[in-house]
Write the structure tokens for this entry.
Amino acid sequence: MQYQEFTDLGHGITCIDTMQHRAGLAACYLIEHQGHAALIDTGHSLCTPRILALLEQKGIALKDVDYVMPTHVHLDHAGGAGNLMQALPNAKLIMHPRGARHMADPSKLIAGATAVYGAEGLKQQFGEILATDAERIISIEDGDSFSLAGRQLEIRDTPGHAKHHYAVWDAVSRGWFTGDTFGISYRETDATACGSTQQHYLIPTSTPVQFDPEAWNNTIDMLMSYKPERMFLTHFGMVEDVASLSIELKRKLHEYVLLTRRHGLAENAHTLLKGALKQLHTDDLARLGAQLSAEQVEQIYAVDLELNTQGLLFWLEHAA
Ligand SMILES: [Zn+2]
């Protein structure tokens, strides 16, 4: 599928490209049902005007957006939540209990992100991070369900990428909005783009600091137990070959763990492990017949390989 700024995926679902860093890297989703709407993930705050433009284009009144549902508090998913909530007078902000307080008081999020990007870099890349009134935040429990004009959106706890992560099950599309719990799959590695024999290619997201491979395996089993027909990934878009991708994701999680144990205690662990991850994906793609050079693979996953390496080393040191 060719994605644009807004891509209609059927079942009242629109994929919104948040344009973070580049096109095709991060998405959020609009679900419309009988004149009402929900947003799943928000992108960073710089994306808010784009989301509001889509609502206007579709004739959805701001007051008819019932829910804003960031799958977890990482900034590419929840950074724009405060901003959006100011624009949407009736919306409730649906949060994992471990994330809710960071939306009411984002000072810890801001401090953490400032440490990584610097104050100026944070503002440039992610815009401003605003607080949401605590009384507009609903802290979920596993299995909670929210009605969007009668269309049930079921929330499940999905640890593995982060402990503050949930996913949203939509029975109408038989799809999961997976946030980061079904890995990353960019269109550049699709069969149609690079000649691979596999429709989509997918890599894990072992971002710091709560990566947990065992919990993640259980989460994948839980997701698959619903017999989904499609997954809506934040990075990036809809995938429908879910059975084979779930096996691929588990295999890669296992390989990530093995590589981390092999390289993680070396003096230059970061360099070795990052190189090994890059090699793993380069070899994988070559085996599938993808016409991508090592440099292209590195370019596609530049940010991800760095974050994945950091997350794996943190896991080895603190939790493995
Ligand atoms: Zn993400």
Remarks:
- The mean pLDDT is 96.
- The first strand starts at residue 6 and ends at 8.
- The CA atoms of residues 90 and 183 lie 32 Å apart.
